[in-house]
Amino acid sequence: MPKAPASSTSATRQWDLDQLSEKLTVEDMARRAHMSARTFVRHYKTETGMPPGQWLTRQRIARARNLLASTGLTVEQIALQVGFATAASLRRHLHAKLGVSPMPYRRARRSSSWLRLHFTWPVCGGI
């Protein structure tokens, strides 16, 4: 007897994170989870509170934010690495989510990180 498919999408979500640079379709993800696309989307929404495409976009933005803050990669390189087809697409998504484009985000994150690393203010007791 074939093994019954698991009802969770968590393994597929983990796989999705490892494949962010690839074009991922609901059909691909559903096949990976051994579910029909309709069943997969229903389970995905129940577990994450959002459809797969929205969840993927959020994960891509999160990874892009991390790369902007921690690497010297260009916006184009980051866009491709996180699965956006173009730098313009990354800019559009980042601006919609955060209200800022990649370069100002990078500058702000780097300056605040630099300040935290180089200035630790002593705690002054009793002053």
Describe the structure.
This protein has 127 residues and is an all-alpha fold. The protein contains seven helices and no strands. The chain has helices at 10-18, 26-32, 37-48, 52-70, 75-82, 87-98, 102-118. α2 (26-32) packs across α3 and α4 (52-70) packs across α6. The radius of gyration is 19 Å and the shape is elongated. It starts with 9 loop residues before the first helix and ends in a 9-residue tail after the last helix.
Offer a quick outline of the entry:
This protein has 127 residues and is mainly α.
Keywords:
66% helix; 7 helices; mainly alpha; disordered N terminus
Q: Indicate the proportion of strand residues.
A: under 5%
What is the structural class? mainly alpha
Overall mean pLDDT score?
A: 86
Order of helices and strands: HHHHHHH
Tally of DSSP β-strands: 0
Low-confidence stretches: 1-5, 121-127
SSE topology sketch:
Elements: H1 10-18, H2 26-32, H3 37-48, H4 52-70, H5 75-82, H6 87-98, H7 102-118
Helix pairs in contact: 2-3, 4-5, 4-6, 4-7, 5-6
